[in-house]
């Protein structure tokens, strides 16, 4: 069995047939993390592993032997970005030294749900400190607590952020799946850069309770993995309705098995937005053109169109951060505030301020924390206006999804689900990824198109065998 090439549905079959156990699978990945991620070079994508992972695997193996299979994620190891609370023997730090010894009071709602579904929390991945919300001049993948995460395709390249460790761990295949978080592109960007599949869900599909926050309007967690099938399986166990996160109550309580969309053929029309075509490299143009032809060969009708632009996503983050981060500290029983964190960093400048903290300073001293500023209200209004405009475009052109070159902030600002899958390598040997976007709560359409395209491309990307 080649565990690295097996999808989660295939791993489930192997475990049900007695050819594999969750304990064996977990140990396999623990060895891989030690030998590859913490070898030479040290890619540093995994911050720590769960000391109870193997024991949890044994319990889940026993359940399977007794006839219980909780879900498609039963016995499957998952890596979590280290801004997601786990109420266990692992810390939750967001890469900040002030949180180095922070053991969360309890699991985040997301992690509670994953454990109930039988997932094994394998460990925590490194991230750009505070999910890229500390400084404008920082380096992606760097945190004052854990140092640098390296791009496995070229250690001199920017690995992108902020879910850097989650993306790099998937490129190195250190687990079947990982979870990242996104506020303004932090799942899509590192997924594209590191040649893995990333899906940013509709805002409200996944609970944010117990995740170190930036913005209540924009934050979400999402699955990342080496294949669309694995991402679909994990997403099925992430969808929740959380009373403490009201936006998650805006969709149905029905469970959805997103793996069924791996075999559907419901998508008919794909919008193509290429207004940035002349601004990207020839390699990206070539891959985009080739992908459009492949989509047509798969039977999809391509419709040229243009999406509106967004300009005010940062003010939403800027004004909401103070309230959100202080609430998180309070809920965790920590004697910390945003202002206190700033002063802590200043008092430990050598260790904590290698790239400054100008974003934190803006959030603390240029906002009231009461969300009454006109700039903030204007940004929210832009979000409403652009959301309506995008809905109108989907309706006018009868679109199922859109394919964008090279990137748009519409997905994170307006809460639309987005998907990136690797499409190939450029002339320098670096991955080129896609950017697909669907209407709200239409993740299944992204999964269908992504999987069909993935099967057609049949790429075997491996940064360790360049």
Task: Give your account of this protein's structure.
38% of the residues lie in helices and 13% in strands. β9 (269-273), α9 (282-297) and β10 (301-304) form a beta-alpha-beta unit. It is of the alpha/beta class. α2 runs antiparallel to α3, α10 (313-331) crosses α13 (358-365) and α10 (313-331) packs across α14 (374-397). It has a domain at 3-262: Alpha-Beta Complex (Amidase signature (AS) enzymes). The longest helix has 24 residues, at 374-397. It has 16 helices and 15 strands. It has helices spanning 8-16, 22-37, 53-65, 109-116, 129-132, 164-171, 188-194, 228-238, 282-297, 313-331, 338-347, 349-352, 358-365, 374-397, 410-414, 443-457; strands at 46-49, 77-81, 120-125, 142-143, 147-148, 177-182, 197-200, 220-225, 269-273, 301-304, 401-404, 418-420, 422-425, 431-433, 436-438. Strands 1-3-2-6-8-7-12-15-11-9-10 form an eleven-stranded mixed sheet, sandwiched between helices. The chain has a two-stranded antiparallel ribbon with strand order 4-5. It is globular, with a radius of gyration of 21 Å. The model has no long low-confidence stretch (mean pLDDT 97).
Keywords:
Amidase signature (AS) enzymes; eleven-stranded mixed β-sheet; alpha/beta; 466 residues; 16 helices
Secondary structure topology:
Blueprint: H1 8-16, H2 22-37, E1 46-49, H3 53-65, E2 77-81, H4 109-116, E3 120-125, H5 129-132, E4 142-143, E5 147-148, H6 164-171, E6 177-182, H7 188-194, E7 197-200, E8 220-225, H8 228-238, E9 269-273, H9 282-297, E10 301-304, H10 313-331, H11 338-347, H12 349-352, H13 358-365, H14 374-397, E11 401-404, H15 410-414, E12 418-420, E13 422-425, E14 431-433, E15 436-438, H16 443-457
Parallel strand pairs: 2-3, 2-6, 9-10, 9-11
Antiparallel strand pairs: 1-3, 4-5, 6-8, 7-8, 7-12, 11-15, 12-15, 13-14
């Amino acid at each position: 069995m080649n565990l690295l090439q097996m999808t989660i549905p295939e791993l489930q079959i192997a475990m049900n047939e007695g050819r594999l156990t969750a304990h064996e699978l977990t140990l396999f990945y623990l060895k891989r993390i030690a030998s590859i991620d913490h070898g030479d070079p040290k890619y540093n994508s995994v911050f720590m592993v769960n000391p109870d992972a193997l024991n949890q695997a044994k319990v889940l193996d026993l359940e399977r032997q007794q006839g219980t299979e909780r879900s498609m994620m039963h016995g499957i190891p998952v890596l979590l970005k280290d801004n997601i609370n786990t109420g266990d023997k692992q810390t939750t730090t967001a890469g900040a030294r002030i949180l180095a010894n922070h053991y969360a009071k309890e699991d985040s709602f997301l992690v509670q749900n994953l454990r109930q579904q039988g997932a094994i929390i394998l460990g925590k991945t490194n991230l750009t400190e505070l999910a890229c919300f500390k400084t404008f001049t920082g380096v992606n993948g760097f945190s004052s607590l854990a140092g640098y995460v390296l791009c496995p395709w070229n250690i001199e390249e920017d690995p992108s952020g902020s879910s850097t460790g989650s993306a790099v761990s998937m490129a190195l295949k250190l687990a079947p799946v990982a979870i990242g978080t996104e506020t303004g592109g932090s799942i899509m960007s590192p997924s594209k850069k590191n040649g893995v599949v990333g899906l940013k869900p509709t805002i409200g599909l996944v609970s944010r309770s117990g995740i170190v926050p930036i913005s209540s309007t924009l934050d979400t967690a999402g699955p990342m993995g080496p294949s669309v099938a694995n991402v679909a399986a994990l997403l099925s166990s992430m969808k929740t309705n959380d009373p403490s996160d009201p936006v998650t109550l805006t969709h149905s309580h029905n469970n959805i098995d997103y793996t069924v969309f791996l075999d559907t053929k419901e998508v008919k029309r794909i919008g193509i937005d290429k207004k940035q075509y002349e601004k990207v490299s020839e390699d990206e143009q070539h891959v985009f053109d080739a992908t459009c032809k492949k989509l047509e060969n798969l039977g999809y009708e391509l419709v040229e169109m243009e999406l509106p632009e967004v300009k005010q996503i940062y003010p939403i983050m800027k004004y909401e951060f103070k309230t959100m981060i202080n609430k998180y500290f309070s809920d965790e029983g920590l004697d910390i505030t945003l202002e206190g964190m700033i002063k802590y960093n200043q008092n430990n400048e050598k260790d904590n301020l290698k790239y400054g903290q100008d974003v934190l300073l803006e959030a603390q001293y240029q906002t009231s924390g009461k969300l009454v500023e006109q700039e903030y209200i204007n940004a929210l209004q832009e979000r409403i206006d652009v959301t309506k405009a995008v809905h109108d475009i989907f309706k006018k052109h009868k679109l199922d999804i859109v394919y964008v070159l090279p990137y748009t902030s519409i997905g994170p600002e307006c809460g639309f689900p987005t998907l990136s899958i690797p499409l190939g390598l450029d002339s320098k040997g670096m991955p080129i990824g896609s950017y697909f976007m669907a209407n709200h709560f239409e993740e299944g359409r992204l999964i269908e198109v992504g999987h069909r395209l993935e099967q057609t491309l049949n790429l075997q990307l491996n940064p360790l065998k360049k």
